[in-house]
Design a protein that fits this description.
Elements: H1 20-30, E1 39-44, E2 50-56, E3 63-68, H2 78-89, E4 93-98, H3 119-131, E5 136-142, H4 144-156, E6 164-168, H5 174-181, H6 187-205, H7 219-230, H8 236-243, E7 255-261, H9 274-279, E8 283-288, H10 303-315
Parallel strand pairs: 3-4, 3-5, 5-6, 6-7, 7-8
Antiparallel strand pairs: 1-2, 2-4
Helix pairs in contact: 2-10, 7-8
Amino acid sequence: MKTNLRHVPRFHSPFWCYNGHLHTIARSLCGDTSQPEINRIEITTPDNDFLELDQYINPYSDSIIVLFHGLEGSTERYYMVELMKVLIRKGHSIIGVNFRGCGSRLNKQPRFYHSGETNDYQTVLEWAQNQYPNKKLGAVGFSLGGNALVKYLGETGKDSLVQTAVAVSVPYDLRLGSIMLSKGFHRIYEFRFLRTLSKKLEAKRKHYPDLPTFNGSTLYEFDNQITAPIHGFENADDYYETCSARRFVNNISVDTLLIHSKEDPLCPAKAMPLDRLNNNPYTDYIITKKGGHVGFWSKPQGWLNYVIENYLSSNL
């Protein structure tokens, strides 16, 4: 049944952080990236590739929280690091997942990762369940990682391997978010994404020269020319329609909290399928008036991670 969110503290933004861009950029530039003491391991995937996981296992904890980052992120991003530290301090074990090609080196297969890649989620969660059978599993996903987490929860329903989840700044409509990135000031984010994606593509083409080439200037064109064909979609629109989180919220069957800002500059809040979320007894959501994409500069500090940890602990 739905979790009571009446006692969640309201999000308060400092006066100088007056729009979503400031929240997003300020938190990215000033966030804590000094990782806690974690152990990096590799696990194999069914297609003879590998995933790099950063884990901290507390032998006395009864839960493991699995964390999934956003587009071109890693476990070194501030939002992952800061949440890891909060969860560890509160007694949880944690596993931070680096998507294929986002860890210390490129993955082995010609494919990368994408917003709807849930097979790797299943691989990680099955591994965690087998390694630590006495610990319950929770999950947190940010942005792209949150989209895939919602998709995983919807696909698996009551068979989900996680008991509870939180997803932050989810792109519920991938096409809408992609188009938004190609306009005005938003292109500063698009440029950053395309720079690293193109660099990885060229590095991978040295091993797989038959991979398609990218000759566009927008994320939509990258998804149309590269992401879609590499991962078995007809084109970008097919990829977006197949993988957008809004298609899967109806079937979520574990307690799940979705956090979003009305001022999110990358993933518009208007894409949230509120009717479906309201009709699903397992989904709760918080929509803040202020805040950015993943970045919520709060006063006092730490609002986002407090809400995430509190929700997870109340449902595990």
